[in-house]
Each structure stands twice: as C-alpha cells, then as structure tokens.
Amino acid sequence: MSLRILIVEDEPALSMMLRYNLEAEGFAVETIAHGEEADLALRENLPDLLLLDWMLPGISGIELCRRVRARPEGDRLPIVMLTARGEEAERIRGLKTGADDYLVKPFSIPELVVRIRGLLRRAKPERMADRLVAGDIEIDRATRRVRRSGHEVPLGPTEFRLLEFLMSHPGRVHERQTLLDHVWGTDVYIDDRTVDVHVGRLRRVLNKGDAKDPIRTVRGTGYAFDETFGKP
Ligand code: CA
Questions:
Q1: Which fold has domain 129-225?
Q2: What's the whole-model pTM score?
Q3: For residue 90, how far is its CA from the centre of ligand 1 (angstroms)?
Q4: pLDDT tens by residue, 59-97
Q5: How many A from CA of 27 to the centre of ligand 1?
Q6: How many Å lie between the centroid of ligand 1 and the Cα of residue 28?
Q7: Which option is the CATH number for 4-125: 3.40.50.2300, 3.40.50.1980, 3.90.1700.10, 1.10.8.60?
Q8: For 9, which of 81, 85, 123, 137 is 20 to 30 Å away at the CA?
C-alpha cells in the first residue's frame, strides 16, 4: 500500500501540481485547501506525511502544526512546511513549532521529493526501499550507486535521477515534459531534446556490450522502463 501524504494548501494550482507530482512518485495524495477542514481531517486520522502551507484561510499552518504535535500520536508525524518568500524570517518559528523541514516557494519538485523521501525513510524505514532492482540492474538510493551484473555503472547525477525515475515506474510511459519536471525540476526551462540527449548517454553507459536495453522509446510520446525487463 502506498504511503499517504496530506497536502494542506490553498493555492489550487500549486495544490494540483503537488498532487500530480507526488502521485507520480507513487504516493497516495489527499489535498485540503482550508485550515479548519484540515484540522478535522487530522483529528480523524493522520497521514504518513503532512505537507503544510504556512498561510491558510481558517487555521494557519503553524497552528495546525502545533495542534498535531500536541497530540501523543502526532509526535512523530513528518511535517514539511511551505512558506512564501518574505516569510523566511518566520522559519525559525516554524521549526520551533515542530515542523521537520520547510521549503520556500517557489521550490523545485525534485528537491521536495528528496526531502520527503528523506523524512519518510527515517519515519517509516520498513516502507521506504533504498534498493530498486530490475533484472541485473540494481540502484542503491542511499549511496546513489548503480550496478549492473554486479559491476558499478558510473552515471552522472542527471542520468542517475533519470534511471531512478524510470525504474520506479516500470511500464509507465513518460512524456519528455514529465521527465523534465521530475528529473530537472519545473522551474528550469530546457528543451525537450535535452531528455533525448541524456537518455542516449544513460543507454551508452548502462548497456555495455550486448547488454539488453531496459528503456523503451515510445515514438511520438517519450520513454518507459520496460516492465518485462529481467523477467522470464
Ligand atoms: Ca497560502
């Protein structure tokens, strides 16, 4: 079962974008736009991680954070606060109130995902696999190393993230724009063809000799990690 993330954010566009991206990462996501409503939902049951906007209508993010922490079962819930620029001076107050981490808007999605995974790895180590394996390819997320048939594959950081993203969604076809958003971040403007260049690089390093290519090119769409790879 997927780990559950509750997003409390009153900007609809941001909330939708976060939901889309975190669902693509394999999380079960719920969104709430109002402080009071979030307070009720959190009293009913706690998610595995809470993403909390600072400024909300109704009860503020900081007050919600304080209320969750005041409950014995809310003590260990990972909480990430989102703050607008200019609220940076308030960060310390946020951390004092009990948030585990904070991000200043606009933030990059890959950065958010790294922080979320880091917090969940600590909170739910049994649910967050550090190793991803498909056939003879093995990724260690903690050390950021890749091995194929036991041999180290020397990948650059972009190729590593690309392979990690493709491999964590076997069979799913990703458009180039989706890959740009997840691997490079939404706040950078790069040509779609950059994706092709990096996939090419990844293939050259990963598929030495006559090793089978696990990445499928889907003409006119994008790329997928072959779900049949390594399976009889
Ligand atoms: Ca807000």
A1: Arc Repressor Mutant, subunit A (1.10.10)
A2: 0.66
A3: 14
A4: 999 899 999 999 988 989 999 999 886 666 666 666 677
A5: 23
A6: 22
A7: 3.40.50.2300
A8: 123
